[in-house]
Automatic annotation (TrEMBL):
It comes from Brytella acorum. Coiled coil: none annotated. This is ABC transporter permease. The chain crosses the membrane at residues 20-46, 66-84, 122-144, 150-175, 187-207, 241-262. Keywords: Membrane, Transmembrane, Transmembrane helix. The lineage of its organism: Bacteria, Pseudomonadati, Pseudomonadota, Alphaproteobacteria, Acetobacterales. It comes from the Bacteria.
Length: 274
């Protein structure tokens, strides 16, 4: 099958993600608000415990927070809405009849939706929290540049892998939705896992030392935590190449396991109609 079909699926979902400009602005305001609250909390903790020896400096913790907030919509919070609607109404049968690889079809759409939502917010927040904040006299609280040109290149590669990894996790939620015929389960499981294990609530390097290695080896760390730490030049178990290896491992493992699970689910699929 030629890649044109998958590029078409990607393009359609990308346009849908860019359609709601007011939602982008509203999301930007919300992320700025939560980011500012987190920054004030970090400033209070770091200033009252200057000798605690945290693995991230205050400046790094603030930059970590801004990057996490800008990439919130890149998290795999649940299934692709189109798959959820199709499973609920029975229209999923149309996807099964398409002369395409269903995994790649849904993966293209899932990746486009994630990027279509995340890229505009990330660009806007980077402008507001970076140069605009510095011009407003908030340089110490602003988004810092990459630690070095090498860190920027490693972070760019890692962010690309993180986006693919997030879309692959969404694929698991898609398969779950096809099995349960409802998107509710995927959101009930995906949202708390993604928010907690990606470092959105608290940067993973700031967890207790005994938990840090385990947390960086789980798949959700590869979506935003590993790319951000490479951006900051912060230490990672196994170094930069080891961190990229963790992302690649989960990407391959989830793709192989997900494809096998999808094949079993499709063979036993029962279609309902609303």
């Amino acid at each position: 099958m030629k890649p044109r079909a998958y590029l078409t699926a990607f393009g359609l979902q990308w346009k849908i993600g860019l359609r709601y400009r007011i939602a982008v602005v509203a999301g930007l305001v919300a992320q700025m608000w939560f980011g500012a609250i987190s920054l004030m909390a970090y400033a209070a903790v770091y200033h009252h415990a200057p000798d605690v020896g945290a693995p991230l400096t205050l400046r790094q913790a603030m930059t970590y927070t801004w990057l996490q907030q800008s990439l919130f919509t890149l998290l795999p919070l649940g299934c692709l809405p189109a798959v959820g609607d199709a499973a609920r109404t029975g229209a999923i049968i149309y996807d099964l009849l398409r002369p395409v690889d269903l995994w790649n079809w849904w993966l293209s759409a899932s990746l486009a939706r994630l990027l279509g939502n995340a890229v505009p917010r990330a660009v806007l927040l980077a402008c507001v929290a970076g140069p605009l904040a510095a011009l407003a006299g908030l340089g110490a609280w602003s988004l810092a540049p990459p630690a070095s040109p090498g860190a920027a290149l490693l972070a760019a590669a890692s962010f690309a892998l993180g986006a693919l990894l997030s879309a692959t996790i969404v694929m698991l939620w898609n398969v779950m939705t096809a099995r349960t015929l409802s998107p509710l389960g995927s959101y009930a499981i995906g949202t708390p896992l993604a928010v907690l294990l990606s470092g959105m609530l608290l940067p993973l390097p700031l967890y207790p030392e005994w938990a840090r290695i385990v947390l960086v080896l789980q798949p959700f760390a590869g979506i935003t935590d590993i790319p951000i730490r490479l951006y900051l030049g912060a230490s990672l178990p196994g170094g930069p190449l080891g961190a990229l290896g963790v992302q690649i491992f989960w990407l391959v493992a989830m793709t192989l396991g997900g494809r096998l699970w999808m094949r079993r689910i499709i063979d036993r699929l029962e279609v309902q109609g609303a």
